[in-house]
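Thread: "does anyone have the structure for this chain?"

Original post by V.I.:
We have the sequence but no experimental structure in hand. Need at least a predicted one for the grant figures.
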Amino acid sequence: MFGYINIASGLLDKEAQNRYRAFYCGLCRTLRDRFGQLGRLTLSNDITFLCILLSSLYENDGAAQTGVCPVHPLRKQQYRLSKATEYAADMNILLAYYTALDDVKDEKSAAKAMQARNLKSGFDRVRGKYPEKCAAIQGSIERINILEAQDWIDIDELCNLSGRILGEVFCWHDDEWREMLYQVGSALGRFIYFMDAYEDYEADVRKKRFNPLIELRKSDDYEELCRQTLLMLAGEATEAFDMLPLEQDMDLMRNVLYSGIWAHYVKMHEKDQSTEKQGESS
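Reply from O.Q.:
Generated one for you, tokens below.
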């Protein structure tokens, strides 16, 4: 779930990078204050994007503050705290907890099992605040687990379930913007599930794990089908995003939606091209 809604920092000027860092650091501090140091370890760029989006839509970015960070103790860092940051931190813990459980299921990871136990009390607090949201998310996760256990090959259904998860996460309030925020999150959730399956295909086959693209992989135009699907899902996210009345930090959010979410795809194909060149030269 984490790792795909990222920023392409090399395409931003220094001022924009500092602005992004202030949101990132604010989320980090809020995770620490609300969930302790273990909560801080779940910090993600994915939820930083959500924080920026909600801060822009609801004009709730908070005043800039400065303070010392344990990671960068020699110089004070700028950060922003707001109600949007608090909501984003809650959703960060929610997704981190479910992601840890998923890693336990897939990889039998003792470290992830310990992380899930450590996050459980914070997760329970979040679930107490957002019981309906958490029930909807958990229902989708449980359905995904059932279908994956059955080696389900309908990638569309699995992507849609993933979309429901992130769609719920993106909806802060039950108001006039809920539907549009849901559409942005839903499209990104579908993109993430498909991209994750695409990226992990070789490793999943090697380790004899489920991958929903196993049938599609037999197609002669597999790569083009995957590329077009990812383009369509990214396009759906940006189309919904563009319908929101946003003005603040548009450069940051467009950087993520137009470049950042493609980082894994680009890296994979750069690696493939490098491998091909090495093979030709040997």
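V.I.: this helps a lot. The two ends are 38 Å apart (CA to CA).
O.Q.: and The chain has ten helices and two strands.
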